[in-house]
C-alpha cells in the first residue's frame, strides 16, 4: 500500500515530519516511514511507492552492519512489536521500527567525500567548503583529498545552516561533538567501502546522533537515498553532476517548471513517480543484495 499520512487510533502521535510519523509507545517510540517525498523543503502531493519501505529496511541493514556504534533500534520485525500495534500490521509491516527514546543532538552530522551540491557552490565562491580550505583547481564531483566533516544546525522550517566546528562544540560540548564527528567519518568510510563493492559511489551523507544515559548513539535513518548522495560508479565522471539514486531525479524535473519553490508543491507526472520509485528500490537491492519486503 502507498502511505502518505497515518493515524493509529489509540496510539498518540508525537510528530509528523517531512517523511516520518512518530508515535509514543511509553518507554519507546514508533517511527513510521511514509511514502512522502520532499524537495526544496516542500512536501510534494504524490506518494512514491515503496519509498518508506526502502528507507526503513535499508536503515535496518546499515544499523545491523555498523556494529561498532550503538543505535536506537529495539525492533524492526513486526512480529516483535508490542501487542497494541497488532491491529495495524497492514500499515506498519516493512516500514516501521520501534526505537529507544534518546535526546537528539542539536546538529546534523555531514560527511563529504566528493565535491558536489552545496559544497561545490561554496567551493566555487570561496575556495572552501563550510570554512574548510581546499586545494585550488578541483572540479565538480571530484573526490576530495580526504573526507571532511561539516556540521549543520537543524532548522524546524527552511534550510539547515552549515556551522563551523567551534559552533558545534558550543552546542554539544567538546567531548560529545568529537564523538559525533569521529563516528560520522567512520560510518561514512565503512558505508563508502561497502557501496564501492557493489558498483555505487557514496558521495556524501548526513547522520543524526542522540544521547542515551550519557552515551552518544546513532538514531533516525542511516545511509538511505533520502540522507545520502549515491551515484552509479559506471556513470561517474569528474566535471559533471552524476546521475544518482536519490531524489535528484525529482529535483531535476521540478527545475524545469516555473514553480517558485514555495508551497503548495506541484504534482509529479506518473512517469517521474515511477522512475523515482525504481531508483529507490534499485539502490536498496544493489546495496543489500536482498529483496524488498512489502
Q: Mind summarizing the main beta sheet?
A: 8 strands, antiparallel
Could you say what the CATH topology of the largest domain is called?
A: D-amino Acid Aminotransferase, Chain A, domain 1
Extract low-pLDDT stretches: none
Radius of gyration: 19 Å
The percent of residues in helical segments reads: 25-40%
CATH architecture type of the largest domain: 2-Layer Sandwich
Which CATH class of the largest domain is shown?
A: Alpha Beta
What is the CATH homologous superfamily assignment of the largest domain? ATP-grasp fold, B domain
Q: Name the quaternary structure.
A: single chain
Described by the principal axes of the CA atoms, the overall outline is globular
Counting structural domains, the number is 2
Helix-and-strand structural type? alpha+beta
Percent range for β-strand residues:
25-35%
Order of helices and strands: EEEEEHEHEEEHEEEEEHHEEEHH
End-to-end separation: 8 Å
* SS elements, strand count: 17
What is the number of helices?
7
**What's the pLDDT, averaged over the residues?**
95
Keywords for this entry:
single chain; 294 residues; alpha+beta; Phosphorylase Kinase, domain 1; D-amino Acid Aminotransferase, Chain A, domain 1; eight-stranded antiparallel β-sheet; five-stranded antiparallel β-sheet; 29% helix
Task: Please provide a written account of the structure.
This protein is of the alpha+beta class and 294 residues long. The chain has two domains: 12-101, Phosphorylase Kinase, domain 1, CATH 3.30.200; 104-248, ATP-grasp fold, B domain (D-amino Acid Aminotransferase, Chain A, domain 1, 2-Layer Sandwich). It has seven helices and 17 strands. The strands form four sheets. Strands 8, 9, 12, 13, 14, 15, 16 and 17 form an eight-stranded antiparallel β-sheet that branches. A hairpin with a 2-residue loop joins β4 and β5 (42-43). It is globular and about 60 Å long.
